[in-house]
Write a structure and sequence with these properties.
Layout (H helix, E strand, L loop, with lengths): L1 E9 L2 H4 L3 H21 L2 E6 L4 E5 L4 E5 L7 E10 L2 H7 L11 E6 L6
Antiparallel strand pairs: 1-5, 1-6, 2-5, 3-4
């Protein structure tokens, strides 16, 4: 089994103007999906991320401190899951709750370094 990161890219719920009821329904879908994966024993970890970004870049270590939401998409969170291969993770991602909001799941294999 290998580790894969599932990175969730989509619109900020606050920016969409979801009502409290819609937000509660949306979070319920996330909880159901998470519980399903936990029951299967495939989730190693994961978290939601706040939309505020702080970046440090370049030789001068320039700090950019702002909500950097370009194109109304942001990285909203991630899971690290165990699977045989990337195709198995695509199958896991079929239940991603935000496809109806044009959300995207980016799947990346975690690189293992030999010591």
């Amino acid at each position: 089994m290998k580790d894969f990161m599932m990175i969730f890219i989509g619109a900020d719920y606050q920016e969409l103007g979801l009502s409290p009821e819609q937000l509660q329904e949306r979070m319920g879908k996330w909880f159901v999906w998470n519980e399903k994966m936990m029951a299967q024993g495939i989730v190693k970890g994961g978290d939601a991320l706040v939309p505020h970004v702080r970046r440090v870049s370049g030789p001068k270590r320039t700090v950019t401190d702002a909500p950097l939401i370009e194109g109304k998409e942001l990285i909203g969170g991630y899971y690290i899951v165990q699977a045989k291969d990337a195709d198995a993770v695509v199958k896991i991602a079929e239940d991603y709750p935000d496809y109806d909001l044009n959300g995207t799941v980016e799947i990346r294999e975690v690189m293992v370094f030999e010591q």
